[in-house]
UniProtKB/TrEMBL annotation:
A GO term from the CC aspect: cytosol
Domain of life: Bacteria
Coiled coil: none
Organism phylogeny: Bacteria, Bacillati, Actinomycetota, Actinomycetes, Pseudonocardiales
Protein name: Short-chain dehydrogenase
Pfam families: adh_short (PF00106)
Oxidoreductase among keywords: yes
Length: 238
């Protein structure tokens, strides 16, 4: 898909990876970028159209689809990470994690599939994780949500093939955003700008599974062996 002239909507675009996506899309010549955010007043990037959106609120999702009827690219970036395990973690937090990553992404896709179809097919990029393929003791609810989002990505790809919509997943590991810095301190992590460039290169070349770093590649390779977990503490420190 050509990004020059595209009309993109990025969820969670007020900060971190979402803001980087919006910025890079403008740099690549997108005609319009809807920077969707729970608090659109926090969108500070010149040249984008701020749009209110909470992906867990069906009315909010429907309202966004009504406004962004010209969208040709949907980037499901919004995410939460509550740091909860499955056996003894707060069940409300486990559900909240699935609400954003699984049901929120699904709600956006259901609302925007007809929009993309009417606009010639377009593309959907779901921002997944190396934890789509690895467990992570301490944040296993997030790993479950990202695994579900990976399967959702693959299912939706089949369902939307007929209308010509490219459905891609982006797989990568620890990246220096506000949330990850709070979690991982001074660990050496990806630069968010590098991940976003790799992701948009993948959309431009029609890649369905975009593996943007060595963490993604390692997790994919590990699938052929015994299931294992990711250990953040093994990252090197600055
Ligand atoms: N950073 C990493 O190491 C890493 C690695 C692999 C995958 N990922 C994935 O990459 C994506 C972005 O990560 P990030 O590190 O940039 O996250 P982040 O810094 O925590 O930012 C998350 C964004 O999602 C928004 N958001 C949360 N819940 C939402 C909702 N219900 N509706 C709409 N927006 C909502 C947040 O809005 P508020 O500002 O209102 O909270 C914020 O804009 C996520 O899907 C994450 O799982 C991240």
């Amino acid at each position: 898909m050509h990004l020059r002239g595209a009309t993109a909507l990025v969820t969670g675009a007020n900060r971190d990876l979402g803001r980087h996506f919006a910025e890079e899309l403008l740099r690549r010549g997108a005609a319009k970028v809807y920077a969707a955010a729970r608090r659109p007043e926090l969108v500070d990037l010149p040249g984008v159209e701020a749009l209110p959106l909470d992906v867990t609120d069906p009315a909010s999702v429907e309202a966004a689809a009504a406004v962004a009827g010209d969208a040709t690219l949907l980037i499901n970036n919004a995410g939460v990470s509550h740091g909860v395990n499955l056996v003894d973690g707060d069940l409300a937090k486990i559900r909240a994690t699935l609400d954003v990553h699984l049901y929120g992404t699904l709600a956006m896709i259901r609302a925007f599939a007809p929009v993309l179809g009417a606009n010639g097919g377009g593309a959907i990029l779901n921002v997944l994780s190396n934890l789509s393929w690895l467990s992570y003791d301490g944040n296993n609810a997030y790993a479950v949500a990202k695994a579900a989002e990976w399967s959702l990505t693959n299912g939706v790809r089949l369902e939307l093939a007929g209308q010509g919509t490219l459905v891609s997943g982006l797989v990568f590991g620890p990246t220096a955003t506000e949330t990850m810095r709070a979690h991982a301190g001074d660990a050496v992590m990806n630069d968010p700008a590098d991940i976003v460039r790799a992701a948009l290169d993948g959309i431009e070349t029609g890649t369905v599974e975009i593996i943007a770093d060595r963490f993604g590649a390692d997790a994919k390779a590990a699938l052929s062996g015994e299931p294992r977990g990711f250990v953040l503490e093994t990252l090197s420190r600055t």
